[in-house]
Amino acid sequence: NQSILSNIRIYVSKSCRKIHCIPATSAVVERQFSSAGFVLNERRTSINPDYLDNILFIRTMEKKYYEATV
Asked: pLDDT tens digits, residue range 1-50?
């Protein structure tokens, strides 16, 4: 059905713009570095980079979920 395909294209287009856009400010990046600093402290200096990335990703998704539900 053409209308369904059109809706899917619109959704994919909007999603791609959100994911691949360059932020106008560096506030989001600064927040992520700050979160990384909290996770990667003196006691966790040898943490696997992939593990750190997963922790930060989960924390970001939790915040987004919480903001969407409040």
From this structure: 788 899 999 999 988 888 787 767 778 778 888 888 888 876 777 888 89
**Would you state the structure tokens that stand for residue 12, as one six-digit string?**
């994919």
Phi and psi angles of residue 25, each rounded to the nearest 5 degrees, phi first: -125, 165
Residues ≥6 apart with Cβ < 8 Å to 40? 47, 52
Q: In 3-state terms, what secondary structure has residue 26?
A: coil
User: Whole-angstrom Cα distance, residue 55 to residue 70?
Assistant: 23
d(CA 55, CA 39): 8
To the question of pTM greater than 0.90 for the whole model, the response is no
Q: How far apart are CA 37 and CA 17, in angstroms?
A: 29
